[in-house]
Known about the structure:
Elements: E1 8-14, E2 25-31, E3 40-50, H1 52-58, E4 75-83, E5 95-98, E6 126-130, E7 134-136, H2 143-146, H3 149-160, E8 168-172, H4 176-188, E9 191-196, H5 199-208, E10 215-218, H6 225-232, E11 238-243, H7 250-255, E12 257-265, H8 280-287, E13 290-293, H9 299-312, E14 320-325, H10 329-337, E15 344-348
Helix pairs in contact: 1-10, 3-4, 3-9
Bound molecules: NADP nicotinamide-adenine-dinucleotide phosphate.
Region (Disordered): 1-20
Domain Enoyl reductase (ER): 21-347
GO molecular function, one term: oxidoreductase activity
Amino acid sequence: MSNAQVTTRQAFRRTDDYTPGTPKLKLVKEDLPLPLAPTSVLVKVHAVAINYRDANIANGGNPWPVLPNGILCNDAAGEIIAVGEKVKALAVGDRVGPIIDTEYISGREVGRSWLAADEDGVMADHIVFDEAVLCKLPVYLDWISASTIPCAGVTAWSALKGMSIGQTVLIQGTGGVSMFALKLARAAGLRVVLSSSSDKKLQQMREKFSNPPILTVNYTTTPDWHKEVLELTGGVGVDIVVENGGTGSLVKSMKCTRRGGIVSQVGYLSKQNPMDLAELVSTIIDRRIILRGINAGSKYDTEDFCAALSACQTPLDDIIDKVFPFEQAEEAVQYVWEGKQIGKVVLKL
Ligand SMILES: NC(=O)c1ccc[n+]([C@@H]2O[C@H](COP(=O)([O-])OP(=O)(O)OC[C@H]3O[C@@H](n4cnc5c(N)ncnc54)[C@H](OP(=O)(O)O)[C@@H]3O)[C@@H](O)[C@H]2O)c1
């Protein structure tokens, strides 16, 4: 093992106090799991990206069980500072991030182990992982941008798989996954229809991504937004939807997707009322929709995505909404919980 001097770390662990207004995180100092196991590596973390999922877990809303007082967050970018004696694929100095489900390597595994839920997450200044669950991150990206790849980035990548130049995508909302989807759609030559609850955000996005222009629709002030999306596409519908609302918007999303098109179900941000799904089966059949469940991606997906980013040299700094210092993790999580961001919120260490 390479000789790193560090033996302890600082980490933010959840308080598991879900009372509104109380702290959701506690900064702790703790021993690192040393000596390193033969195939483990020690990573000095430079940036941690925050997702809706993290804010939801911190506030007790995760629909799946979580480790008591676990370390929050699953997205990190850092530099390897020590390796176990049998590590083969990685070396000191490599820039890496862990995948978010550490049992999802090729995509054919049957188990699952989610960071920040089944096991500790990454909101810490040092983390230790087996080399098998780490991916090399693109070298052209700074730490802040690179940290957004494993969850929001890979999810957007999985959601848009199979699209080809000239097709049209409906992207719902202006959060992290959506902004990544927007960047990928642009890189892939797709036409973008973007929805948001905020005219101000839509205006900002039209100005930021003006050439070629994006089409926009406000899903709050236009409750029948699917009809507007149909109009924007000459009555045909979009080729694919990055579906973020869940139960509340799924049927409408299908109604504005072309016959034979794809709806990638990513999120569950709306009020989840099963009554909203009354027309689900008839709409799927009528429009011959392919409904595709998205659950981030495997290690192989992450590697493919990093290769695509590196090939296109796609800048990601324009989808970073705000960078907080590590010490302000509590404020950063609350900011995401309130949905104030357009794109990504990141902690810098
Ligand atoms: N399946 C997966 O693999 C996967 C991976 C990552 C995230 N997710 C899920 O995907 C969703 C988005 O995650 P994120 O990290 O991008 O969240 P985020 O950064 O917090 O973004 C949330 C944004 O979505 C928009 N939104 C809110 N309610 C909506 C609704 N009812 N319909 C459409 N859009 C709505 C809002 O944008 P405006 O303010 O512009 O309206 C909001 O700012 C969450 O449900 C998350 O749990 C799933």
